[in-house]
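To close the section, here is one more complete example, presented without commentary so you can practise reading it yourself. The ligand is iron/sulfur cluster.
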Amino acid sequence: MACAGRSRPGHAAILGAVTTKTYFIRTFGCQMNEHDSERAAGVLQTMGYRPADTIDTADLVLFNTCAIRENADNKLYGQLSQLKPLKLSDPSKTVVVGGCLAQKDQEGLAEQAPWVDVVYGTHNMGRLPELLSQADSAELPVVEILEHTEMFPSALPARRDVVHHAWVSISIGCDNTCTFCIVPALRGPEKSRKLGDIVSEVRSLVADGVTEVSLLGQNVNSYGRDLVRAGLSDATGRRNRTMFAELLYALGEVDGLERLRFTSPHPKDFTSDVFAAMRDVPAVCEQLHLPLQSGSDRVLKAMQRSYRARRYLDLVTEARETIPGVAISTDIIVGFPGETEEDFAQTLAVTETAAFDSAFTFEYSKRPGTAAADMPDQVDPAVVSERYQRLATLTRALSRHANERQVGTVQQLLLEGPSKTDPTRLSGRTRTNRLVHVPDVGGFEPGQLVTARLTDAASHYLLGEVTDAEVSDPVGAPAPARVA
Ligand code: 5AD
Ligand code: SF4
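Output:
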């Protein structure tokens, strides 16, 4: 299928020269995609591109796509059809689609949207300049999807929107086989970066003004196992410490790094040395995102999540006992195939016992190619939706309760900028990652650390005011009782 009248900005020339063209990146999905988009922006800026204010005015539009749930697919195809008239009226506009959905749909994407110029997958973002150059002379979309990673995206230049915060990827891919999840098929097996490379990246980010780093991996606490297996580990090798704990201690030595976060660990791989590192390394924030997925052992088994509800709650207890004031968030899927009312009641019960500070809740979405997609007893969407509402009501109440517990305390805030809903306020985050709005009395900069007294709570935010008072002792939910 030929796409008439392609005339693009001459990327062959851009490969070695500077352009005055502009770009706009739309990112769907998870933090790993945000990280990858910062790299795509870095690559484009190295080619001379500058950011555009809107999608309509950009010379190049890049969609960094997600495939984790069906609504992510729908959103991309919706946005692509919105862009179509613009592209057809101005063929010099370049449209690029990259990331997970591109990896999943490959040629199918180019067939559905033949006016797209470049399609690349999860493993080859570094090839963007060459692919753009090929697209100059191609009649059809240039599609390049690789099965294996050529280089870590972290090795590419990054352009970050926020000066004080950076995502740092510690591993890519996933070796797990959760039956609902498309990620391993799209991002490949787990591959860890060398510890020394991660520490160097963090050091240079801090030298560049970054004070807060979020470590990223599909399963951060199995970090480094592949390196150890291959004899490639460059950790100092303290006995009885996992590579992930080693990494936290090593990053704790980086002067000027105020806050260190990570996402996501897997409950089955969680070890006590990581809790100890969270307690002992001052930069590591009192925040833990620990995906539960389901509170029913039967469903966890069918999901191939090899922990059970009891083990999960023991981890919550250990976290709350070891790290004073820790805030725990989670991911929960409702309506996995075969989930009964009794299974769902167990999810509600575990959620309540864990007293989550916040939760991301999802309706199960059937992903063709995953084991769960072919399971019998797919749950009626009306039942899923009704259970979802019940769970959301509970998690909202728990979040409000957790925030109310903070009222009256004085906490450190890292200011992010003006509030999105009220320009008279500034928004910031506590170390526990709670969103707090304070009156903007002038003289504050994004990235600045201030102290605030928290005065009011809602489910998703708190209000406060900047103060000179001392930071309070942390307050968290009580630890669930251990069952012998
Ligand atoms: N349906 C619904 N939610 C899913 N997740 C992953 N795959 C699916 C799916 N098929 C959720 C999990 C995971 C989070 C990132 O997305 O809860 O932890
Ligand atoms: Fe998907 Fe499970 Fe891997 Fe997370 S751990 S990316 S849910 S397969």
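Once you have examined the tokens, check your reading against these statements. The CA atoms of residues 15 and 129 lie 6 Å apart. Residues 174, 176, 178, 181, 183-184, 218-219, 266 surround iron/sulfur cluster (ligand 2) (CB under 6 Å).
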